[in-house]
Design a protein that fits this description.
Blueprint (H helix, E strand, L loop, with lengths): L2 H27 L9 H4 L11 H13 L2 H9 L4 H28 L6 H8 L2 H32 L4 H21 L4 H20 L7 H4 L6 E3 L2 E2 H22 L6 H26 L16 H8 L7 H9 L10 H25 L5 H7 L3 H20 L6 H37 L8 H16 L11 H30 L5 H25 L9 H36 L1
Organism: Halobacillus campisalis
Main location: membrane
Membrane topology: Multi-pass membrane protein
Length: 578
């Protein structure tokens, strides 16, 4: 079967979802008001609250939520077959992710740009707010560890991509200064910046001297460097330190100086990347060699599929970005549909092409099955297979596969770096909020909160445990990242449902995906915590068990509190009407 049919069918579904379903949600459910004064105008400070053009904000929002997750998750999930993965991406994007991302953005805008964690206080109660903030704190900590791990490993695997990624930083600062201070246009400079980045990638692919290969600098694979660390581990350690220094600086700068222009550049990377892959697909006309379903899988797709593909179907982290940074930059409330729902559609399109790149990469079903021999093997190989498969698709446009792979890795790293930057910024907000809640004044200071965020993230990333040895913290946390991420999405949809219900509106478009997601996620988390990671399990893992047990207990507590609050409000309303 030709993969083109999957691509065309998927894009038609996404287009119909945005054109009709998001319009219904905007007009009938969220009831957007073009005259509503958004927090970006009400609290304009030039740092976090900055009214922003909807196209620029969409670029920031999308690239902040995308990262590598809508690639890694789908690339792993095809282990169970391409049909379940495709269906969850399409239906999840249209009916769950779009409603969730759009809804958290509107909910935050209607409440002074507050985060979903803070809004839990208003909608459920003080206790739920604290619990929710701790769940969010654990999630962003895991996001930081996972994405730092991904970036460092991509730098090691594709050293030709490093130059382009670092060139982007001064270019973005230049664009931010030109636009903000001189009131210039961001479109042309960002296209020029993108051209410079890709030129650097092409040149570096053919000139080894321009490839920043730390493994080679430290003596090559297997070479002993320092304190028993080999060259690869030492390179990983250095990259993590460099990344943490970068995100410390980036997450404390005003959004217009680096975050917005870099994200706008990355939004064009999305267009270029998707264009390369989808157009390349038309010329290569690849055949699907992966199985429709895998009846011999060593783990069941139910319910693990729905947590393995988080970003790309629905993701709680999107709600953190929407309510944490995007809501503070929304120029008009009516822009929320474009930024929130279309941002989810963009991520769904990325997840769709990630699936296609993987399921068409192998010459035969036998070779696919040999690589995807088990779920653990799929988890380790997924991202690398995607980059190689994407290179093959792009080669249909006449681009050498090695150059195409470098460009794809630049795109993936750029997205992951944006997510890491936004996640550290969000973690700073949460730490400061907890500091205010518990009257710990040092934590309310920007640089103290950022230091706590960066140091804890680095320590978690560098945990010397697991199959990958030193620096495998991010790898180990991936299973829990997906579960916690979906749990957060479910709780956010619950908050949206409560808000809509209290407004006297139709809350079923948010409540139905919430109920589905909560069931699947809690089921998966209970299975993982009690049967896979627990001390009494055959393959126990103290790190995953500890984090997982805490998140599970907090989530169940929040659910109990939420439904108690709903029941109490209904009872009070009945008593008052009587």
């Amino acid at each position: 079967m030709s993969a083109i049919w999957l691509a065309v069918g998927g894009m038609i579904i996404f287009t119909l979802g945005y054109k009709y379903y998001s319009k219904f949600i905007a007009e009938k459910i969220y009831r957007l008001d073009p005259n509503f004064k958004t927090p970006a105008h009400q609290y304009k400070d030039g740092v976090d609250f900055v009214p922003t053009n909807k196209f620029v904000l969409w670029g920031h929002h999308f690239t902040s939520v995308a990262g590598a997750a809508p690639i890694v998750g789908p690339a792993i999930a095809v282990y169970w077959g391409w049909l379940p993965a495709i269906l969850w991406v399409l239906l999840g994007t249209v009916f769950a992710a779009g409603v969730h991302d759009f809804g958290t953005l509107v909910l935050s805008v209607r409440n002074k740009g507050q985060s979903v964690g803070t809004l839990a206080d208003k909608l459920i109660g003080q206790r739920a707010k604290i619990l929710f903030l701790f769940i969010i704190l654990l999630l962003v900590l895991m996001v930081n560890a996972v994405f730092a791990w991904v970036i460092a490993n991509l730098f090691i695997s594709f050293p030709a991509s490093v130059l382009s990624v670092f060139i982007q930083i001064p270019l973005a600062i230049w664009i931010g200064y030109s636009v903000y201070k001189r009131k210039g246009n961001m479109l042309l400079p960002s296209i020029v910046a993108l051209a410079v980045m890709y030129l650097a990638a092409v040149v570096a692919s053919g000139v080894p001297a321009l490839q920043i290969d730390l493994v080679r600098y430290f003596g090559g694979e297997g070479a002993s460097v320092l304190f028993g660390l080999d060259a690869t581990s030492m390179a990983f350690f250095v990259w993590i330190i460099v990344l943490m220094i970068y995100v410390y600086i980036a997450s404390t700068l005003p959004v217009w100086k680096l975050l917005q222009p870099r994200d706008y550049i990355n939004s064009h990377q999305l267009i270029v990347g998707l264009g390369l892959l989808y157009l390349g697909m038309l010329f290569t006309n690849p055949e699907i060699t992966a199985p429709v379903s895998n009846s011999s899988a060593d783990t069941s797709w139910f319910p693990l599929l729905f947590i393995t593909i988080a970003c790309g179907a629905i993701s709680g982290f999107h709600g953190l970005v929407a309510s944490g940074t995007s809501s503070k930059q929304l120029n008009k409330e009516t822009d929320a549909r474009f930024v929130g729902y279309l941002g989810a559609v963009g991520e769904g399109a990325l997840a769709l092409v990630a699936i296609i790149a993987v399921i068409t990469f192998f010459p035969s079903t036998a070779e696919f099955s040999a690589t995807y021999s088990g779920f653990a093997a799929a988890s380790g190989e997924g991202l690398g297979v995607f980059i190689q498969g994407a290179g093959v698709l792009a080669s249909g446009l006449g681009i050498p596969a090695s150059v195409a792979a470098t460009i794809v890795s630049v795109i993936v790293v750029s997205f992951a770096a944006t997510t890491l930057d936004s996640s550290v910024r969000l973690m700073r907000y949460i730490i400061a909020e907890l500091g205010t809640e518990y009257n710990i004044k040092p934590l309310t200071k920007t640089h103290v909160a950022t230091t706590v965020a960066v140091v804890s993230s680095a320590c978690l990333t560098l945990i010397p445990e697991g199959p990958n040895g030193f620096g495998s913290g991010g790898y180990l946390l991936w299973p829990l990242f997906g579960t916690s991420n979906q749990l957060l999405a479910g709780i956010s949809l619950l908050l949206i449902s409560i808000w809509l219900k209290r407004q006297g509106r139709n809350y079923w478009p948010a409540f139905i995906p919430m109920a589905f997601l909560m069931f699947m996620t809690l089921y998966a988390m209970i299975l993982q915590v009690l049967t896979q990671w627990a001390p009494w399990a055959e393959q126990s893992d103290w790190l995953l068990f500890s984090f997982g047990a805490i998140v599970l207990v907090f989530a169940l507590w929040i659910l109990f509190t939420a439904f108690s609050a709903i029941f109490k409000s209904d009872k009070d309303r009945i008593e008052k009407s009587a």
